[in-house]
Amino acid sequence: MKNGKGSRGRQGGSDRGGIRKRGAATRVDREGDMVMEGGSAARSRGGKRARGESGRSNTSNRSQAANKAMDAIQRAISSNDSQANIRQGGRGSGLEQAIVRGWKQSKAASNPDGGLESLIAFLEKKLSPSDSKAGTRARITKVCATPELAVTDMNHQRRPLRCAFVFRDGSFRTTIGTCLGSTGSRVEGDALIVSVRPELLDRMLKLDGFSFAGAPLTVHKYDRSTDGLLDQSMLSQNGSSPSAADTKAKMTAVLGRRYAQQTKLLDLSRLASDPDLVSMGIFGSTSTESKFFPALMKVWELNFDDSAARRKAVESVSLAHNQLANITAVTTLAQTIPELKNLDLSNNEFKDAQALIGWRWKFRNLEFLDLSNTPFSSDPTFKDTMLKWYPKLRFLNNVEVRTAEELAAQKKTPIPVQPPHFRDESQIAENFVRAFFAGYDNDRSELINGVYDKSSTFTLNINTSAPKSEGTETAPWDAYIKKSRNLLKINHLPARMSRAYNGTDKIRDLWTSLPATRHPDITAHPDQWLIECYPIPGLPDPSGQSPTGVGGLLIMVHGKFDEISGSRVETRSFDRTFILGPGGGMGGIRVINDILCLRAYGGHEAWIPENQPAAPPAAAPATPLVAPQPVAVPGAVPGVVPGAPDGYGMPTPGKPDVQVQQEQLVLQMSSKTRMTLPYSEMALSGNGWNIDAALKNFEELKTQGTLPPDAFLPV
Amino acid sequence: MAPPTEDNLTKVSTDAATEFVQSFYPALENNRSSIASFYNQPTAMILFNGNAVTDGAAVQEIFVNQMSPTHYEVQSFDCQIINQGYPTPTSTGTKLPTETTLKDMSILVLVSGYVRFGESRDLPQRGFSETILLVPNPTTDLPKGRRRKEWLIQTQNFRLVV
């Protein structure tokens, strides 16, 4: 299934660990795909289950099921029953399948699970030889349920079912059971499909016509051939059976016909009346129908080389007119296209919020949602619930429910984001920051020799759960975690001491052991940095002459870096605060404190100033304008633009923001045109502070040769 | 006074930072009338997203009157001693070297976590980074009804970073 691979890696939980003890079982599971190649219908079925099981094992909330599984496994292992290989239930192990109907009309159907458990108990009892002891009686394990049983499976959390394995994928669709004694079962619509040992099949079929809780049951042998069409094996990457390729090709064609690249719309409405799908026999049985959508999503994914391209390809999906009573059958959409903006679910049968609950925390970027002509949309709580679920929702049932302003206001912080506060002294901080990160990337030892001394302190803490940018994954922290001095977690004094690095030698040893890094160039990518600085008093005086302490600089840097370990490159974000004081290092300074926090990559949007100057239109190139830290604006570096007064383009107390922003524009203008600051300012003010217009104007005048030589900076 | 041992220094500084983090962020959340009491007077600099705020009283005023309900979640923090012999001011000037104790130190605290502006749990979690310098409380006054804080904010810089 879709997320099978990912969940395999992530999961590795106790249930798998237990299984691994049995080599054969592991092989069956792991190599399910290969077994499927065998081609017989029976093997294909089993293979599919093996896949399904790993694919759906990605919820954490099923330890109960896992524990039960462990129990079942242990019992299976310790028994001398030859069929203890639990993973073989229902696959190529010679089991026969029977289909049981009629129980949905029984009194037990009003049970929370639809009567399934009662039915299973009933069948077990009937199948068990009358003289058998409890230990050898037949057991049936529920294997698979279709949407009708979603609630049953959810309830499983509280009310034990006789399941050896229940794995959920968020849609509550369960799959894979084990056949502990003799049987396994699954449910398709109103049919329970039971796998039994061949010797039990006769007994099973004799139950035809038996009365169960007031309703007659029908039992007959199950014919798999009607059920093979969409076997997952057909869609496996290396699946090479003709029908697999055929199914995939047909689905690809259907998807191609329903996808509009320009509008990024994937129209999956009215699927049941799609002639191609109908001709494929998709909707012939509940079984193929339930497998169809995940398969379709799988085919869709196979069309893309990487998840980034896949995410970008679709912004809108329509699932209108599909008679959906809940999203169970289509839930995989949320995994395949998680960053959907527009979703049309109109003209379906959703009764209430519960019918959509599987998507409660999905589609975090949803802006447009249509649930018109569904029972749910006339519910009085409908609008509030949807607004609550989807914080970016703008339109619900084609009515605006949040204005752009409301959305912006929601996003806006109560404390407006301002450009960095950067109050340097003699460019000490600027020079230090530039040299530091270049040195940290290239020669840490040299950096330590330059500005660290015997009293310098370095510590590192990892925020392993920090908010991160959407759509990014965070690499493990193994290389750092044993050095992390997160005081929330490191509570013992000896650990707190050993994780503080004092003096050049200890810092050097630590830094040498940390992964190599590459920070973005400050001049080339100013927007990726936020650097603030101001003077502070009360620092230790290494000369001991000033008992009241000496002044220094507090520097706070936020940014990102690439971590290089072997061929892998991981991007992470960091916060790093330095305290510089007078000392014997390069430039007469020393690092008193260097404290570093590493966290998942979180982008740099958070520090883009909220108050843009009014004059430059939105069309102006974003980066230079929002370049927040003056040190990084190339023109702001004195010497690059001769004649720039001290502090020009930098915020200082009392200077209005508009002036700072205009000065920064002037510096940009000047660095692009090589015009002097006064001429750059004239060009900008003459063009409404629109730098694009000013540059265009400049090019015209330059071509005409009307600019005087003194408009330009001396070469 | 015998020179302080490494373990004592570590204990005092990390206890101070822990106590601060465990009381300051809850106060920002639901005890805003106490905010001013966390600040030294005068403070060197207080910044929120690049906005300079005059002093602790002004911070309290902003939180009491202008801030929506706000939830802070500290996910990681660490501290370092800046100055083991911090010149704590007294009524007669600065403490003499003979008067200083183990607790006359200044401490650098770096906090990483998330903040949610507004009551609803569905609102986005914004990552923040905050640098705080703590100095010893120079006064021995006992604030009415409150425990005397041993450490006060000398400078603070809050930034949303995600």
From TrEMBL, chain A:
CDD domains per the UniProt record, alphabetical: UBA_TAP-C
Pfam families: LRR_NXF1-5, NXF_NTF2, TAP_C
SMART domains: TAP_C (SM00804)
Keyword Protein biosynthesis assigned: no
InterPro entries: LRR_dom_sf (IPR032675), NTF2-like_dom_sf (IPR032710), NTF2_dom (IPR002075), Nuclear_transport_factor_2_euk (IPR018222), NXF1/2/3/5-like_LRR (IPR057125), NXF_fam (IPR030217), TAP_C_dom (IPR005637), UBA-like_sf (IPR009060)
Keywords, in A-Z order: Cytoplasm, Leucine-rich repeat, mRNA transport, Nucleus, Repeat, Transport
Compartments in which it is found: Nucleus
CC per GO annotation: nuclear RNA export factor complex
Similarity-based family: Belongs to the NXF family.
Stated name of the protein: mRNA export factor MEX67
Organism placement in taxonomy: Eukaryota, Fungi, Dikarya, Ascomycota, Pezizomycotina
TrEMBL record, chain B:
Sections of the chain in a coiled coil: none
One Pfam family from the record: NTF2
PROSITE patterns: NTF2_DOMAIN
Lineage: Eukaryota, Fungi, Dikarya, Ascomycota, Pezizomycotina
Residue span, NTF2 domain: 16-160
Single GO biological process annotation from the record: nucleocytoplasmic transport
Protein name in UniProt: NTF2-like protein
